[in-house]
Amino acid sequence: MKMHNFYAGPAILPKEVIKEAAKGALNFNNSGLSILEISHRSKGFSEVIENAEALIKELLHLPSNYHVLFTTGGASSQFFMVPMNLLNQEETAYYVNTGTWSTKAIAEAQHFGHLVELASSKDKGFNYIPKYKMPKKGKYLHLTSNNTIFGTQIHHFPKGDLPIVCDMSSDFLSRPIDIEKFGLIYAGAQKNLGPAGVTVVIVREDMLGTVQRQIPTLLNYETFVKKNSMFNTPPVFPIYVSMLTLNWLKAKGGVEKIERLNKSKAKLLYTELDNNPLFTPNIPNKRDRSLMNVTFQITNPDLESDFLAEAEANGIVGIKGHRSVGGFRASIYNAMPRSSVKVLTDLMADFANRKG
Ligand SMILES: *Cc1c(COP(=O)(O)O)cnc(C)c1O
């Protein structure tokens, strides 16, 4: 049966990438060795990591004063690495709280400096992107570009005096970005780039070297810059597969092209949700809806398990909502074909006709 993978993360990767990765696991570049058993200092892997870095720079049009780093510990480790590296104890950082991940980022950052929660959408169960004014003074403004669990997304980033630090874990490389606004971007690979195990950090040169505290070597961004992310053994296989996905994305026409496809997929699904009498989208304001994680409910909760069972029978997996929200969530990252989204919307329409 053809499977349609709507998991939120780890998540769908392009079929071509999985095939190529499987080949590399058996016989990497016709070397007679597996990518899993070669030195991270070998020529073969050096090319992989250099390629991955170059592709990220190319796809996002990064100016030369931005570094691309490959770290471990997930996006969650960036919740503390960011303030540890960027914020002095007496300095102020502003955070916008748009969900579970922002809340966790705020909790961690509090240990490293003065924190101000600039705005929050907690009052309405994080179902919108709150309004705020960019502060005039402060070290940075932290945003979560896409709220994987609740299904909201920032579609316009503010321009102003503070550099934006952004958790882009679940919409990294899904659209072009205005890089000038950002001082630092981080993203765990397992949503839109590769397997779990590597986290990409993009940091502007002038953000570094401004804090007084002692930072452990492997938690210091400057170590990653100086050693090209190879102070210690990097996660070789996740970086390899991420490189394959980056190549795939480039061949597809880059972030500009994939954004169009992402918009078309999201439109298909939200249009069904807005018109189907049996389903409702969680995010009322169209301008705040995520193009990556589409959250919705069934109006008659008695039918929820029926719909899940029918979905499964049709090869649709991973649409159960996050345990803290309930209902459904369809994650439609870069690698999700439009035809799979159509299978889901067709089933929703058919289900409503029969049971509505
Ligand atoms: C998944 C996710 C995280 C956590 O990522 P880990 O790599 O598991 O630490 C953080 N932020 C966002 C926006 C996410 O989607």
The name CATH uses for the topology of the largest domain is Aspartate Aminotransferase, domain 2
Overall CATH architecture of the largest domain: 3-Layer(aba) Sandwich
Question: What is the H-and-E element order?
Answer: EHHEHEHEEEEEEEHHHEEHEEH
Task: Specify the CATH homologous superfamily of the largest domain.
Answer: Type I PLP-dependent aspartate aminotransferase-like (Major domain)
First-residue to last-residue Cα separation: 27 Å
Query: How many DSSP-defined strands?
Result: 14
Mean pLDDT: 98
**Helix-residue proportion:** 25-40%
Rg, Å, rounded:
21 Å
Q: Give the CATH level 1 class of the largest domain.
A: Alpha Beta
What ranges have pLDDT less than 50 throughout 5 or more consecutive residues? Answer: none
Spatial order of the strands forming the largest sheet: 2-10-9-8-5-3-4
State the shape: globular
Distinct ligand kinds: pyridoxal-5'-phosphate
Task: Please state the structural category.
Answer: alpha/beta
Number of helices: 9
Q: What proportion of the residues form beta strands (DSSP E)?
A: 15-25%
Report the sheet with the most strands, covering strand number, pairing sense and barrel closure: 7 strands, mixed
How many separate structural domains?
Answer: 2
Question: Layout of helices and strands, plus pairs?
Answer:
Blueprint: E1 4-5, H1 15-26, H2 43-59, E2 66-71, H3 74-86, E3 92-97, H4 100-109, E4 114-120, E5 140-144, E6 146-147, E7 152-153, E8 164-167, E9 182-188, E10 199-204, H5 221-226, H6 236-251, H7 254-275, E11 279-281, E12 293-298, H8 304-313, E13 316-317, E14 328-331, H9 338-355
Parallel strand pairs: 1-13, 3-4, 3-5, 5-8, 8-9
Antiparallel strand pairs: 2-10, 6-7, 9-10, 11-12, 12-14
Helix pairs in contact: 1-6, 2-6, 3-4, 7-9
The chain binds pyridoxal-5'-phosphate.
Residues 9, 74-76, 101, 144, 148, 167, 169-170, 188, 191 line the site of pyridoxal-5'-phosphate.
